[in-house]
Amino acid sequence: MLALLLLSVGAALDSAATAPTTGARPAPPQLKSKHLLTALRGGGSPATSIIGAVDALLMGTGLSRLDLPSDMMAALLAGQLSPQVLRNYGRLLREPFFRSASNLLLRSPFVRNRLILDPDLAIVLLVETALVVATKMVAEGNAGLGKLVGKVDFIAANLALLVIANIALVVALAPRARLGKPPTGVRRALASLPASFLQAGSFTATQRLTCLIVRTVQLGLIGAASSVFRSCVARAILEARTRITGRKDISASELEPIWSTALTNGAFVGVSISTRYQLVNAVEEWLLPKGPIGICMSAVLRCANHLVGIIMWETWMHFRRS
Questions:
Q1: Helices marked H in the chain — which ranges?
Q2: Distance between CA 132 and CA 226 in Å, rounded?
Q3: Around Cβ 99, how many Cβ atoms within 10 Å?
Q4: Is residue 22 classed as helix, strand or coil in its secondary structure?
Q5: Gap between the Cα atoms of 80 and 89, Å rounded
Q6: Is there a smaller number of Cβ atoms within 10 Å at the N or the C end of the chain?
Q7: 208 φ, ψ to 5°?
Q8: DSSP 24
């Protein structure tokens, strides 16, 4: 449920998260296939010609027509998918984590259109997920084993929601492959922005500043939505505990208020996390193409980013309480 909520928030602002295909990890050129044009202009049955052209395009990518969802098939017929993007999608389907066609990450265009442009994003998501789990468990473990066992349901639910929210934040800042009709009006202007304000490419200072503002709002909304959902889940767990055990270990009034907490968390995500993640993305544009060494350095960088985030969060909460 939260996954759908956060992905919906991101998708609603997806025009603002679209970047042109420039930079150190650029989108492959989206050119119309000569095979497809030849088939469409040739004789014989149009359906047979198109099927043959699609099969020719998919040859060598590890994909079949059945592997492509309807929107990707339409983009393929429109000449919006390059062979490299198709190979990237085939690579994702061969990965154990993405092998199931029903996997949420690949079913969501918000996530999938970024993964097919840059499969290394999957590695970044795994690193980020591991860091979120590790830091959360260390923080909870400091309270002692007895307290940890006593609130395992709260911890498990909160951890799952934090992982989903973090995935949404990381994905929102990644460049994506543009499928479907070209944007118009305001959406077209937003689509011209970089994915993050320091992304490599020929962007103007105005575009970069606008990107920074848009990402602050976008990620702030994701952070606020995540906070509201976590608060509601905590209250639902508390009510279920009370019904099952017949006793109330903690009252709902002792929990953090929903809306003020959401405002605080959303502001922190928009100002601190958004800026730090965009700085990390800028460094990773240079690191990730270097192979295993670059991936290891990226993991160290993201670990350091989490440690800085913990310090900044404690400082943020100190000023909030004062």
A1: 2-12, 34-41, 46-58, 70-77, 83-94, 104-107, 109-115, 120-141, 145-150, 152-172, 185-191, 205-245, 258-268, 274-287, 292-321
A2: 15
A3: 11
A4: coil
A5: 14
A6: C
A7: -70, -40
A8: S
- Tokens of residue 239, six digits: 């009510």
The tens digit of pLDDT for each residue in 181-224 reads 888 888 888 888 999 999 988 999 999 999 999 999 999 999 99
Tokens of 65: 């027509």
By three-state DSSP, how is residue 119 classified?
coil
Q: Is residue 128 over pLDDT 90? A: yes
Give this prediction's pTM: 0.77
Report helix, strand or coil for 252: helix
Backbone angles phi, psi at 181, to 5 degrees: -70, 140
Structure tokens at 79: 């000449």
Tell me how far apart the alpha carbons of residues 215 and 17 are, in angstroms, rounded to a whole number: 8
pLDDT top residue among 84 and 10: 84
Tokens of residue 175, six digits: 């460049």
- Angle, CA of 141, 162 and 27, to the nearest 5°: 130
**154 and 237 in contact (C-beta within 8 Å)?**
yes
CA distance 267 to 314: 14
Sign of CA dihedral 264, 270, 275, 281: positive
> How far are the Cα atoms of 8, 165, 167, 277 from residue 264, in angstroms, in the given order?
21, 16, 20, 19
More reliable by pLDDT, 57 or 233 = 233
CA distance linking residue 218 with residue 10, whole number of Å: 7
Please, which residues have CB within 8 angstroms of residue 308's CB and are 6 or more apart in sequence? 276
Contacts of 270 (CB under 8 A, 6+ apart): 216, 217, 219, 220, 221, 223
- Confidence tier at 306 by pLDDT (50, 70, 90): very high
